[in-house]
Specification:
By secondary structure, the chain is mainly alpha-helical. α5 (65-72) packs across α6. Helix content is 55%, strand content 0%.
């Protein structure tokens, strides 16, 4: 699965500002907050403006919340985003931009839920964590079976599998590869199964094309 994903990703990856090699942890964490309920292309066009005006946690901590909200208006949810960003920035400014090392301490920061916490641990190089959103969940469920709980944050099997499928020295690329696969090919409706690098590993596709199913039957990663 890793080799198929990475080979496909090498030629099909999406290019966003937060994925550049010179993107720092501040830019990547801010981008994850801006991406919430926002299309990646919209956040990508907005992020350079944001980081030019607020290039660091310290600059962001000094922002006027009403002015920040107005600046964020094009993204929607602007008041909520402004409050979240400023509350987090104030704490991070006091910490000189350094996130805690322990995951539980990162989770305790303002505006940091499971997804943003995982992003911090992943991009800081401290732990291989999945950027588990609806796109990644859809890819995993189609390959390995549906989750048991509605909320992906609390489904233990989905969480375990997501960690296994991104585990390794290229965890960041594997995360981005699955996210891109979910956005470009493994769509909720009318997925492009014939172009998918995981088509022969995917239960969803094999159910649609029984002649492709291997004699060994269903796979498991657990």
């Amino acid at each position: 699965m890793h080799s198929s994903l990475l080979l496909w990703f090498a030629s099909n990856r999406r290019h966003f500002p937060w994925r550049k090699r010179n993107a720092n942890l501040y830019q990547r964490v801010v981008s994850e907050i801006l991406l919430q309920r926002t299309r990646a292309e919209v956040a990508a066009s907005f992020l350079p403006q944001f980081t030019k005006r607020y290039p660091s946690w310290k600059k962001l901590a000094l922002a006027n919340e009403a002015c920040l909200a107005e600046f964020l208006r094009p993204l929607g949810l602007f008041r909520r985003r402004a409050a979240s960003l400023i509350n987090l920035a104030r704490v991070m400014a006091e910490r000189n931009g350094r996130f805690p090392r322990e995951k539980s301490e990162v989770m305790a920061l303002p505006a940091v839920g499971q997804y943003v916490c995982n992003a911090v641990m992943l991009f800081s190089g401290r732990q291989a964590e999945p950027l588990l959103d609806v796109n990644m969940a859809r890819v995993i469920e189609r390959c390995f079976g549906p989750r048991k709980l509605v909320d992906i944050r609390y489904d233990p099997e989905l969480q375990d599998i997501s960690r296994l499928v991104i585990f390794g020295p290229r965890a960041i690329d594997l995360n981005w590869a699955i996210l891109d696969l979910g956005a470009l090919l493994c769509r909720k409706s009318r997925p492009h199964c014939s172009d998918c690098p995981l088509s022969r590993l995917c239960d969803f596709n094999l159910e649609r094309s029984p002649d492709m199913r291997p004699a060994a039957g269903r796979r498991s990663v657990l």
